[in-house]
Amino acid sequence: MHDPSRRLPGERLFSLLLVALSLFLFYEATKISGFEGLSAPGSFPMFATGSMVITAVIVALQTVRLPESDEHGWRAILPGFVIFMAVMMIFYALALKPVGFLPTSFVFLLISTKVMMRSSLAKAALISALSLALVYVVFRLIFSVLMPEGIVPEREIIAGMRSILSGGGQ
Amino acid sequence: MKSKLLGAVAALMVATAPALAEYPEKDIQGIIQWGAGGSTDTVMRAVTPHAEEVLGGKVVMQNMTGGVGAIATKYVGAQDADGYTLLMGAENPQLYKVMGLGDTDYSDFTPINIIARGVPLIVANNDAPFNNFKEMVEYVQAHPKEVKFGSTGPGGLPSVVTAMLTSEVELPVTFVPYDGDGPALTALQGGAIDVMPAVLGAAIEGVKAGRMKVIALVDVAANPALPDVAPITVDYPGYEKYLPWGPFFGIFVKNGTPDDVVQKLSAAYGEGVKNAEFVSLIEGRGFTVLNLSGDEARSFLNKWQSVTSWLVFDAGIAKASPEEFGIPRP
Amino acid sequence: MDFAHFFMSWIDLQLLSLVAIGTFAGIYVGAIPGLSVTMAVSILISFTFSWEMYDALSLMIGIYMGGVYGGSRTAILLNIPGAPSAIATAMDGYPLAQKGLAGEAIGLSTTMSAVGGFVGIAVLGFAAPAVSEFALTFQPRDYLLLAVLGILLVGSLSGESLVKGIFAGALGLTIGCVGLDPLTAQERFTFGQIELWGGISFIAVMIGLFGVSEALQQLQHVDSEAVKQVIRRIVPQWSSVVKYLPISMQSSLIGVIIGALPGTGGDIAALMSYDYAKRVTKNPEVPFGQGAKEGLIAPEAANNAAVGGAFVPMLTLGIPGDAVTAIIIGAMFIHGLNPGPMLMIERPEMFWFILGALVLATIFMLIFGLTGIRLFVKIVELPRAVLFPLILLLSIVGAFAVNNSIIDVYFMLGFGVLGYFMKMYGYQIGPVILGVILSRLIDDNWRRAIISDQESLPRLFHGIFTSPLSAVLMIAVILIFVSNTPLWSWGKRKLFPAQP
């Protein structure tokens, strides 16, 4: 795994980003209530972000001094599949609200399974549909979590189904 | 095979068609402002099944907590005004404007039902060296800053009740903040705080068991749940101008919802609140059933907002003057 | 005869099967990240509205007990804790699974969860009034010290670099501050966004850091074969149960106390007893973090013991010990009871009924836990290309479900990516979650304590050293703090030079 005596590609950048993030958050923390008193709402955030700044700076100084690792390239940090899935998830998150849960999730599962399994489209579609059905039944039907509906009028369909079922039962 | 499938789809369409004509044609979303297990949550989950029976539809209730209810309020305000999203909340939004928590309140919503109102009372740790309101005021004034009052943040019930009290008497106390009356009442029993203004329902069981004592009932009349406690107005008639006052629970839809939908919902919840089981549940917790809708509900909301906004403003804990928002002085 | 109600759920076939169904369902609710016991129980309130109260309670108690245990399943098999209380379980459970010992690990954790469950129930049954009075004596400063004790765990969770561990812990504390300050309604790190007023959901952070980042990490080796699990033994040997019994009993007691304190629950209990086990185990067979069985047993025993603990203040005083008992109190109201200090006097049979149902649920947990393993372990043997997209989907739905908020989904994904890089560059995830869990506890109680002492630090310390409870906690804080610094090993060398 991670070898503390060598610097991985991107590690220096990451440690500097964390310093920047910590400084920014510390600045935000000082704006909450200023140095009003021990019990002010901003005191604890200043303590927490202050600790972040100090430790982030120490880590960054340590990291910069480390010799560069020769055996790992960028590929080791970000293999193709990881980038692929991260991009997929960004698209998923963006599409979830406007398009709705069911279509977005199906496309997400379909593409990721297809690409990673290198299987036929039909097989990937079957697997995706099964997974999605499972998630849908558990979350939407049993736990009543109303995922964004988007373009599928789910609640009308469910109410319709329910009225048919109860109608059939009478 | 294909034709059979199409037939089934067609049948489904036909079967749902008549339902489309009439509200509710799909599940209604009920957004609860407070967390699971709290009093708002309990009240909403207890009344809704009775209302569903009348309504003939299903209300899926969800808790959307945070920002003293502002997140749920904003969410419902952003949905379509079609009556499929209900806001199930407490009194807090009526103070958002003066507390600097945004520019919405219940005037952006149409009340379906104002279900019930709570009665505030002041309780103290059993070891506290005072037994009634008069003694407390004397003790506090003799020992400034020493008595610890529990509070639940600006705009919470303890802050309003304290504002009311300090309008007549001076109370130099230390406020220790808690994130709800439950944790504060727990701390009261452990001696971390001495006095807590709370809603009767939250404190009643502790009082009955002798784990805390009542200092004052902040109402104009004695309460059936605590028949031996005289209302505060007996000794301090000056409070009569604010009372009766108390936190409330209500169900709302966004303004602009069609009238027939509002009518139907109001009728359903009106029936639900009348249900005998529900009434005994809610009165057992020390709440007073109101069951207001329409203009009655609207004028209740306005009066509540005007009294409370000015109270907290005059006590100096508000961030903005009610005048800025056109809230008249009572 | 009120005590007879203890056996009510055992002899009534309907109640018996409701407890069984609840426990079974609870295991799966607990195992799926994003489905929580809190959610399940609050949905059951509406669902069981028209039921008899005993029926409703049986189902809820089953779900509660099963759910707390179920979180360990995915923690061990996938390194993705299904629930916050299983975070500590993953630290040594997952390394065991990687060695192909998942069956044994699950068997052992099941048995010790049951031990913890029974210890919790025994304390509830025999000492509830005393324990709840003790819990009430905790003042804000004691909660503060307890939380500081918790945050010192960063020392145990940091891995290769303590500085990186402290950074991660401080990041967690900061995340926990986001939102409207619950005490003053002041905006903190909200950048003017109302959506952030409620804060960043702790579950969303957990799912992102553990679920998504783990899935991404494992995708690096998408083509490699899953570790083949050898399932020889599931029911642990008697000798190993006996061997680990002391540590599980001690962890259970930590679990009961922390569970009984209003405001702390199974997640903190599990982490603290993990740390405790790490400190008291002198020579583990395998180092902690690489599959030490003590590190698996301690949190599992503690989190199930915390269930019994959470019922202690609830049944004696009507004060919820955690989020789930808070909802059960609501359910009891709806069914016409008045949970409070009078409940034990007016309706003592309720106490015995709940106690009996808890014992029954623990027994079912043991049975279901030990029998379904083969099937469950198959999950990890699924092709990664099927498993990981599904995990990501579950993560997204789960993060949404916590508070029905799309913002939580974005945060979850953001923390997933952050967690991926943190793991890559040698930062541990554990301290971040620890920070998020403890942030409110520290912040709120620090402010309450210092306000109560009129903003005076000398008064606060005077209070700490004049109260026995606070003094004990303070000494523990000092000892653990010193033991994490070089001063300790230096002093130890000086004092005991002969020790190997």
TrEMBL record, chain A:
InterPro entries: DUF1468. This is Tripartite tricarboxylate transporter TctB family protein. Keywords: Membrane, Transmembrane, Transmembrane helix. The chain crosses the membrane at residues 44-64, 76-94, 124-143. Residues 13-148 form the DUF1468 domain. It comes from the Bacteria.
TrEMBL record, chain B:
Residues 1-21 form the signal peptide. InterPro entries: BUG, Bug_dom1. It comes from the Bacteria. Keywords: Signal. It holds the Pfam family TctC. Gene3D superfamilies: Bordetella uptake gene, domain 1 (3.40.190.150), Periplasmic binding protein-like II (3.40.190.10). Belongs to the UPF0065 (bug) family. This is Tripartite tricarboxylate transporter substrate binding protein. It comes from Rhodobacter flavimaris. The lineage of its organism: Bacteria, Pseudomonadati, Pseudomonadota, Alphaproteobacteria, Rhodobacterales.
Automatic annotation (TrEMBL), chain C:
The keyword Transmembrane helix applies. Keywords: Membrane, Transmembrane, Transmembrane helix. Residues 16-434 form the DUF112 domain. The keyword Transmembrane applies. InterPro entries: DUF112_TM. The chain crosses the membrane at residues 7-29, 106-131, 143-159, 165-184, 196-213, 253-274, 319-338, 350-373, 385-413, 425-442, 463-482. It holds the Pfam family TctA. This is Tripartite tricarboxylate transporter permease.
